[in-house]
Amino acid sequence: MLTIGCHLSSSKGYLAMGKTAVSIDANTFQFFTRNPRGGNAKAIEPQDVTAYLSYAAEHGIRRILAHAPYTLNACSADEAVRDFAYRAMKEDLERMEYTPGNCYNFHPGSHVGQGTETGITLISRLLNSILTPDHHTTVLLETMAGKGSEIGGRFEELREILDRVKLTDKMGVCLDTCHVWDGGYDIVNHLDEVLTEFDRIIGLDRLKAIHLNDSKNPLGAHKDRHARIGEGYIGTEALVRVVTHPALKNLPFYLETPNELDGYAREIALMREQAKDSANL
Ligand code: FE
Ligand code: FE
Ligand code: ZN
Predict the structure, then answer these.
(1) N or C end of the chain, less CB within 10 A?
(2) pLDDT band at residue 241, thresholds of 50, 70 and 90?
(3) Which residues crowd ion ligand 1, with CB under 5 Å?
(4) What pLDDT was estimated at residue 41?
C-alpha cells in the first residue's frame, strides 16, 4: 500500500496530527519540529506522545518525518546562526527519542559566499558534533533546488557530506521532486536516468523519503517554488510515475504543495487511485 501524507501543523501535538492525517486518508505525515522561522520548540508532552503512538499503531500510520526549521543553516558565515543550527538540531534529535525510528529532514544550508567546499565542511562538522550512536532517528539531507548559494543542488554535494559524517549509518536523503527538477534533473522525461544517477552517486539505499511537489518553474530554474499536483511544470503524469516507480513505490511520500487540508485530501486520493491502477496492470 502507498505510504503518503502531507505536511501538517504541529501546534496541537502528535495525537492531533495523527487524527488529521487519518481524516484525509494519509498514513504518514511531516511536521516542523518548531516554528519554521526558528525560535524555541514547544515542550513535548509525554501523554500526547503515548496517546499518539497507540493511535498510530491502531490506524496504520507509518514512519513519520520531522522537518527542521528553514532558518537552520549549518554552513552560515555567521557564528550565531551556526550556533542556532547546532542547538536546534541537537535538541530536535533529543526530542525525537520520544518517537524512535522516524526520520529528521533538514536543508543542508547556504554557504553564503564561502564556497561549496567550506559549506560541506561546516555541515559535516555540525553532524559529527551532534550525532551519537544511541540516536534512534535517521537524519536526512534534502535535495535542494540550488537557489543562491544552497548546498545540495547536486547529488555529488550530498554524497560528499555523507562521506564525511562518521556515523554515516544514521544518515539518509530525502528527494524533493520540485527541488531536483528546479536543480536541473529532468524527472519528467528521464526519470530512470535521474534515478540511475542518484544510485551511482549517492546510492538508492540512502533514499528514505520523497517530497512530492509540482514546480512553478521550468527545469533548471533554481527557484524552489512548489505548485499543486498538476498545476506546475512537472505535471500529474510525471508525479504518478514517481509514486509508482519500482525503485520508489515503497518509500513514504510527503506533499508540500500549497494546499489546505481538502486540497491535500484530493491529492492523496488521486495518488492512491493511480497507484492502485498501476499495481493492477
Ligand atoms: Fe524542505
Ligand atoms: Fe521539500
Ligand atoms: Zn522547497
Answers:
(1) C
(2) very high
(3) 142
(4) 84
Q: Where are the domains of the chain?
A: 4-279
For range 239-252, the mean pLDDT: 98
Match 506522545 to its residue by C-alpha cell. Answer: 49
Q: How far is the CA of 171 from the centre of ligand 1 (A)?
A: 16
> Hey, which CATH number is domain 4-279, 3.20.20.150, 3.40.50.2000, 3.30.70.1060, 3.40.190.10?
3.20.20.150
| CB neighbour list of residue 255: distance below 8 Å, 6 or more residues apart | 4, 5, 6, 7, 211, 212, 213, 229, 264, 267, 268
Distance 208 CA to ligand 2 centre (A): 13
What are the pLDDT digits (tens) for 166-208? 999 999 999 999 999 999 999 999 999 999 999 999 999 999 9
Question: Which residues place a Cβ less than 5 A from the ion ligand 2?
Answer: 176, 211
Q: Is the pTM of this model over 0.90?
A: yes
CB 99 within 8 A of CB 10: no
- The rounded Å distance from CA 47 to ligand 3 centre is 33
CA distances to 35, 60, 77, 141, 149 from 130, in Å: 21, 31, 19, 15, 24
